[in-house]
Amino acid sequence: MSQLYAWGAVATIVSASTAGDVLLSRAMKQVGDVAELRRRAGVPTVIARVLRNPNFVLGVTAMAAAFYAMLFGLSWADVSLVVPASTSLTFVTNAVAAKVFLHERVDQRRWMAALLVAGGVVLLAL
Amino acid sequence: MTFRRYLVLVGVAVFAVTGDSLVSRGMRQAGGISLHHLPGIILVVFRPEVALGIFFLLAFFACYMAALSWADLTYVLPATSISFILLTLVAKFILHENVSLARWLGVLLISIGVGVVTQGPALTHPAQPPERECLAAPASARSEP
Protein backbone atom coordinates (compact mmCIF):
# COMPACT_ATOMS: atom_id res chain seq x y z
CA MET A 1 0.00 0.00 0.00
CA SER A 2 2.80 2.40 0.91
CA GLN A 3 4.41 1.52 -2.43
CA LEU A 4 1.21 2.65 -4.12
CA TYR A 5 1.24 5.95 -2.19
CA ALA A 6 4.89 6.51 -3.07
CA TRP A 7 4.31 6.02 -6.81
CA GLY A 8 1.14 8.10 -6.59
CA ALA A 9 3.24 10.90 -5.15
CA VAL A 10 5.87 10.43 -7.88
CA ALA A 11 3.15 10.58 -10.57
CA THR A 12 1.71 13.76 -9.06
CA ILE A 13 5.13 15.43 -8.77
CA VAL A 14 6.05 14.48 -12.35
CA SER A 15 2.76 15.72 -13.84
CA ALA A 16 2.75 18.97 -11.88
CA SER A 17 6.36 19.84 -12.61
CA THR A 18 6.03 18.92 -16.30
CA ALA A 19 2.94 21.15 -16.56
CA GLY A 20 4.90 23.89 -14.76
CA ASP A 21 7.91 23.67 -17.08
CA VAL A 22 5.76 23.64 -20.22
CA LEU A 23 3.70 26.64 -19.04
CA LEU A 24 6.80 28.62 -18.01
CA SER A 25 8.47 27.84 -21.31
CA ARG A 26 5.40 28.95 -23.24
CA ALA A 27 5.18 32.13 -21.13
CA MET A 28 8.80 33.05 -21.84
CA LYS A 29 8.43 32.40 -25.58
CA GLN A 30 5.45 34.80 -25.53
CA VAL A 31 7.49 37.42 -23.66
CA GLY A 32 10.34 37.00 -26.14
CA ASP A 33 14.13 37.27 -25.73
CA VAL A 34 14.48 39.03 -22.38
CA ALA A 35 17.94 40.44 -23.18
CA GLU A 36 16.58 42.16 -26.26
CA LEU A 37 13.45 43.37 -24.44
CA ARG A 38 15.60 44.76 -21.62
CA ARG A 39 17.70 46.68 -24.12
CA ARG A 40 14.59 48.16 -25.72
CA ALA A 41 12.43 48.81 -22.68
CA GLY A 42 14.38 48.32 -19.45
CA VAL A 43 14.34 45.82 -16.61
CA PRO A 44 11.03 46.93 -14.97
CA THR A 45 9.19 46.32 -18.27
CA VAL A 46 10.71 42.83 -18.54
CA ILE A 47 9.63 41.97 -14.98
CA ALA A 48 6.14 43.41 -15.51
CA ARG A 49 5.70 41.50 -18.80
CA VAL A 50 6.72 38.21 -17.19
CA LEU A 51 4.62 38.63 -14.04
CA ARG A 52 1.55 39.67 -16.05
CA ASN A 53 1.72 36.65 -18.36
CA PRO A 54 -1.12 34.23 -17.45
CA ASN A 55 0.96 31.19 -18.46
CA PHE A 56 3.70 32.33 -16.07
CA VAL A 57 1.24 32.57 -13.16
CA LEU A 58 -0.20 29.12 -13.99
CA GLY A 59 3.32 27.70 -14.38
CA VAL A 60 4.44 28.97 -10.97
CA THR A 61 1.23 27.57 -9.44
CA ALA A 62 1.96 24.16 -10.99
CA MET A 63 5.54 24.31 -9.67
CA ALA A 64 4.23 25.12 -6.19
CA ALA A 65 1.87 22.12 -6.46
CA ALA A 66 4.84 19.93 -7.43
CA PHE A 67 6.78 21.25 -4.43
CA TYR A 68 3.97 20.41 -1.99
CA ALA A 69 3.43 16.99 -3.63
CA MET A 70 7.15 16.39 -3.03
CA LEU A 71 6.79 17.35 0.66
CA PHE A 72 3.83 14.98 1.08
CA GLY A 73 5.59 12.25 -0.88
CA LEU A 74 8.65 12.52 1.36
CA SER A 75 6.49 12.06 4.44
CA TRP A 76 5.11 8.78 3.03
CA ALA A 77 8.06 7.29 1.28
CA ASP A 78 11.85 7.16 1.10
CA VAL A 79 13.81 10.12 -0.22
CA SER A 80 15.93 7.64 -2.16
CA LEU A 81 12.90 6.55 -4.16
CA VAL A 82 10.80 9.72 -4.54
CA VAL A 83 13.50 12.26 -5.46
CA PRO A 84 15.47 10.33 -8.13
CA ALA A 85 12.35 8.70 -9.62
CA SER A 86 10.50 12.01 -10.03
CA THR A 87 13.57 13.97 -11.17
CA SER A 88 14.57 11.45 -13.78
CA LEU A 89 11.04 10.78 -15.10
CA THR A 90 10.49 14.54 -15.45
CA PHE A 91 13.24 14.73 -18.10
CA VAL A 92 11.39 12.14 -20.20
CA THR A 93 7.85 13.52 -19.70
CA ASN A 94 9.14 17.02 -20.47
CA ALA A 95 10.52 15.82 -23.82
CA VAL A 96 7.11 14.33 -24.70
CA ALA A 97 5.19 17.39 -23.45
CA ALA A 98 7.52 19.83 -25.25
CA LYS A 99 6.91 17.95 -28.50
CA VAL A 100 3.13 17.79 -28.07
CA PHE A 101 2.31 21.13 -26.46
CA LEU A 102 5.20 23.41 -27.46
CA HIS A 103 5.78 21.86 -30.92
CA GLU A 104 9.52 21.67 -30.32
CA ARG A 105 11.33 19.48 -32.82
CA VAL A 106 12.44 16.75 -30.41
CA ASP A 107 14.87 14.91 -32.68
CA GLN A 108 17.12 11.95 -31.96
CA ARG A 109 19.69 14.23 -30.36
CA ARG A 110 17.20 15.70 -27.87
CA TRP A 111 15.78 12.26 -27.02
CA MET A 112 19.23 10.87 -26.43
CA ALA A 113 20.14 13.79 -24.16
CA ALA A 114 16.91 13.45 -22.14
CA LEU A 115 17.37 9.68 -21.71
CA LEU A 116 21.08 9.95 -20.85
CA VAL A 117 20.39 12.57 -18.18
CA ALA A 118 17.40 10.58 -16.82
CA GLY A 119 19.58 7.46 -16.58
CA GLY A 120 22.43 9.42 -15.02
CA VAL A 121 20.14 10.87 -12.34
CA VAL A 122 19.02 7.34 -11.37
CA LEU A 123 22.66 6.22 -11.08
CA LEU A 124 23.49 9.23 -8.88
CA ALA A 125 20.94 8.01 -6.35
CA LEU A 126 22.42 4.49 -6.06
CA MET B 1 24.63 30.67 -29.08
CA THR B 2 26.70 33.51 -27.73
CA PHE B 3 29.16 33.34 -24.84
CA ARG B 4 26.68 35.34 -22.75
CA ARG B 5 23.97 32.74 -23.29
CA TYR B 6 26.28 29.94 -22.19
CA LEU B 7 26.97 32.00 -19.05
CA VAL B 8 23.20 32.16 -18.36
CA LEU B 9 22.98 28.34 -18.64
CA VAL B 10 25.94 27.94 -16.27
CA GLY B 11 24.23 30.46 -13.95
CA VAL B 12 21.09 28.28 -13.84
CA ALA B 13 23.15 25.32 -12.60
CA VAL B 14 25.52 27.17 -10.26
CA PHE B 15 22.81 29.25 -8.58
CA ALA B 16 20.54 26.21 -8.13
CA VAL B 17 23.29 24.17 -6.48
CA THR B 18 24.46 27.09 -4.27
CA GLY B 19 20.91 28.03 -3.25
CA ASP B 20 19.86 24.45 -2.47
CA SER B 21 23.03 23.78 -0.46
CA LEU B 22 22.70 26.98 1.59
CA VAL B 23 18.99 26.44 2.35
CA SER B 24 19.65 22.81 3.23
CA ARG B 25 22.51 23.75 5.61
CA GLY B 26 20.48 26.52 7.22
CA MET B 27 17.45 24.28 7.71
CA ARG B 28 19.53 21.54 9.25
CA GLN B 29 21.09 24.00 11.71
CA ALA B 30 17.61 25.25 12.58
CA GLY B 31 16.69 21.70 13.57
CA GLY B 32 13.28 20.12 13.16
CA ILE B 33 10.43 22.51 12.52
CA SER B 34 7.08 21.33 13.81
CA LEU B 35 3.78 22.12 12.18
CA HIS B 36 2.53 22.98 15.65
CA HIS B 37 4.99 25.82 15.81
CA LEU B 38 4.18 27.70 12.62
CA PRO B 39 6.07 30.93 13.42
CA GLY B 40 9.23 28.81 13.22
CA ILE B 41 8.67 28.32 9.47
CA ILE B 42 8.43 32.05 8.91
CA LEU B 43 11.29 33.00 11.24
CA VAL B 44 13.64 30.46 9.67
CA VAL B 45 13.94 32.60 6.50
CA PHE B 46 15.73 35.23 8.59
CA ARG B 47 18.61 32.86 9.27
CA PRO B 48 21.51 34.24 7.22
CA GLU B 49 22.19 30.99 5.35
CA VAL B 50 18.53 30.43 4.48
CA ALA B 51 18.12 34.06 3.38
CA LEU B 52 21.24 33.90 1.20
CA GLY B 53 20.06 30.55 -0.18
CA ILE B 54 16.70 32.05 -1.15
CA PHE B 55 18.53 34.92 -2.85
CA PHE B 56 20.52 32.42 -4.94
CA LEU B 57 17.35 30.46 -5.76
CA LEU B 58 15.76 33.68 -7.04
CA ALA B 59 18.85 34.24 -9.19
CA PHE B 60 18.47 30.66 -10.45
CA PHE B 61 14.84 31.31 -11.37
CA ALA B 62 15.72 34.55 -13.20
CA CYS B 63 18.43 32.77 -15.23
CA TYR B 64 16.09 29.83 -15.94
CA MET B 65 13.37 32.19 -17.22
CA ALA B 66 15.94 34.09 -19.32
CA ALA B 67 17.17 30.83 -20.87
CA LEU B 68 13.61 29.73 -21.68
CA SER B 69 13.03 33.06 -23.44
CA TRP B 70 15.53 32.12 -26.18
CA ALA B 71 15.88 28.33 -26.03
CA ASP B 72 13.68 25.22 -26.18
CA LEU B 73 12.67 23.47 -22.97
CA THR B 74 14.22 20.25 -24.33
CA TYR B 75 17.51 22.16 -24.72
CA VAL B 76 17.54 24.04 -21.40
CA LEU B 77 16.70 21.07 -19.17
CA PRO B 78 19.45 18.66 -20.31
CA ALA B 79 21.98 21.49 -20.71
CA THR B 80 21.48 22.76 -17.17
CA SER B 81 21.72 19.27 -15.70
CA ILE B 82 25.42 20.08 -15.22
CA SER B 83 24.07 21.00 -11.76
CA PHE B 84 24.09 17.26 -10.92
CA ILE B 85 27.73 17.04 -11.97
CA LEU B 86 28.60 20.11 -9.87
CA LEU B 87 26.76 18.64 -6.88
CA THR B 88 28.79 15.42 -7.11
CA LEU B 89 32.07 17.34 -7.43
CA VAL B 90 31.14 19.44 -4.38
CA ALA B 91 30.26 16.25 -2.47
CA LYS B 92 33.59 14.67 -3.36
CA PHE B 93 36.06 17.54 -3.13
CA ILE B 94 34.52 19.98 -0.63
CA LEU B 95 32.41 17.80 1.65
CA HIS B 96 34.82 14.83 1.25
CA GLU B 97 31.94 12.39 0.88
CA ASN B 98 32.51 8.95 -0.53
CA VAL B 99 31.33 8.97 -4.16
CA SER B 100 30.56 5.47 -5.46
CA LEU B 101 31.42 4.11 -8.89
CA ALA B 102 27.72 4.14 -9.82
CA ARG B 103 27.57 7.86 -9.08
CA TRP B 104 30.63 8.56 -11.26
CA LEU B 105 28.94 6.54 -14.01
CA GLY B 106 25.85 8.73 -13.55
CA VAL B 107 28.05 11.83 -13.87
CA LEU B 108 29.52 10.38 -17.08
CA LEU B 109 26.06 9.70 -18.59
CA ILE B 110 24.86 13.22 -17.72
CA SER B 111 28.04 14.75 -19.17
CA ILE B 112 27.48 12.90 -22.46
CA GLY B 113 23.83 14.05 -22.42
CA VAL B 114 24.88 17.68 -21.93
CA GLY B 115 27.47 17.34 -24.70
CA VAL B 116 24.95 15.79 -27.10
CA VAL B 117 22.26 18.45 -26.62
CA THR B 118 24.57 21.48 -26.66
CA GLN B 119 26.02 20.36 -30.02
CA GLY B 120 22.61 20.99 -31.56
CA PRO B 121 20.55 24.15 -32.06
CA ALA B 122 19.06 25.85 -28.98
CA LEU B 123 15.78 26.73 -30.68
CA THR B 124 14.05 24.41 -33.16
CA HIS B 125 10.83 26.26 -33.84
CA PRO B 126 10.39 29.84 -34.92
CA ALA B 127 9.86 32.02 -31.87
CA GLN B 128 6.36 33.41 -31.63
CA PRO B 129 6.30 37.10 -32.36
CA PRO B 130 6.67 38.88 -29.01
CA GLU B 131 3.61 40.69 -27.71
CA ARG B 132 3.23 43.83 -29.76
CA GLU B 133 2.18 46.42 -27.29
CA CYS B 134 2.94 50.06 -27.27
CA LEU B 135 6.62 49.97 -26.47
CA ALA B 136 7.27 53.53 -27.39
CA ALA B 137 9.67 54.18 -24.56
CA PRO B 138 11.54 57.39 -25.18
CA ALA B 139 15.20 56.80 -25.94
CA SER B 140 16.17 58.70 -22.81
CA ALA B 141 14.18 56.30 -20.63
CA ARG B 142 16.30 53.36 -21.67
CA SER B 143 18.45 51.89 -18.98
CA GLU B 144 21.62 50.69 -20.60
CA PRO B 145 24.19 49.40 -18.16
Provide structural commentary:
The complex is a heterodimer of chains A (126) and B (145). Chain A is mainly alpha-helical and 126 residues long. Chain A is 88% helix and 0% strand. The mean pLDDT of chain A is 92. Chain A has helices at 2-31, 34-41, 43-52, 54-76, 79-101, 108-124. With 145 residues, chain B is mostly helical. Chain B has six helices and no strands. Chain B has helices at 3-30, 39-43, 48-70, 73-79, 82-93, 101-118. In chain B, helix 1 packs across helix 5 and helix 5 packs antiparallel against helix 6. The longest helix of chain B has 28 residues, at 3-30. The radius of gyration of chain B is 20 Å and the shape is globular. The model of chain B is unreliable at 132-145 (pLDDT under 50). At the A-B interface, helix 1, helix 2, helix 3, helix 5 and helix 6 of A face helix 3, helix 4 and helix 6 of B.
Write down the oligomeric state: heterodimer
Please report which band the strand proportion of chain B falls in: under 5%, 5-15%, 15-25%, 25-35%, 35-45% or over 45%.
Answer: under 5%
Number of strands of chain B: 0
**For the report, how would you describe the main beta sheet of chain B?**
none
Helix content of chain A: over 70%
Mean pLDDT of chain A: 92
Rounded to the nearest angstrom, the distance between the terminal CA atoms of chain B is 22 Å
Alpha-carbon Rg of chain B, integer: 20 Å
Instruction: Please trace the helix and strand order of chain A, writing H or E for each element.
Output: HHHHHH
Give average pLDDT of chain B, whole number: 84
Strand-pairing-aware structural class of chain B: mainly alpha
Unreliable stretches of chain A (pLDDT < 50, length at least 5) are: none
User: How many E-type strands of chain A?
Assistant: 0
Rounded Rg of chain A:
17 Å
pLDDT under 50 segments of chain B (min length 5)?
132-145
What is the helix tally of chain B? Answer: 6
Q: Biggest interface, and residues per chain?
A: A-B, 47 and 46 residues
- Dominant shape of chain B: globular
